[in-house]
Design brief:
This protein is mostly beta strands and 126 residues long. It has strands at residues 3-7, 10-12, 18-25, 33-39, 46-51, 58-60, 68-72, 78-83, 92-99, 115-116, 120-124.
């Protein structure tokens, strides 16, 4: 069974850090573009970051650029999202998703992603 599972969310104070993990089972993440999305209460799901399957190119939303880093784990079938200098406005449920398309991940729309995880809650509050 193909599955994505996020972990690493939690409660953190403003300025703190968290590392989210997106682990796949049933398929190899190396061959998929991976996106991280988030959804805050009452808001639409938005793209946060993505990493392409082919050249490993990355993309970051302006709101997280310079604070978040997406990376692939070495031989662990996992993609990470390192989140530093967290702000209250980063509070949301974070989802990872996989898309079996080549090319820059920035060109992939949210509806094109094939597999989604169940989400992990990130709360930034003092």
């Amino acid at each position: 069974q193909w599955q994505l599972v996020e972990s690493g969310g939690g409660l953190v104070q403003p300025g703190g850090s968290l590392r989210l993990s997106c682990a796949a089972s049933g398929f190899a993440l190396d061959y998929y573009g991976i996106g991280w999305f988030r959804q805050a209460p009452g808001k639409e799901r938005e793209g946060v970051s993505c990493i392409s399957s082919t050249n490993g190119g990355t993309y970051y939303a302006d709101s997280v650029k310079g604070r978040f880093t997406i990376s692939r784990g070495n031989a662990k079938n996992t993609v990470y999202l390192q989140m530093n200098s967290l702000k209250p406005e980063d509070t949301a449920v974070y989802y990872c998703a996989a898309v079996g398309l080549t090319g820059p991940c920035i060109d992939v729309g949210i509806t094109e992603y094939d597999y989604w995880g169940q989400g992990t809650q990130v709360t930034v509050s003092s």
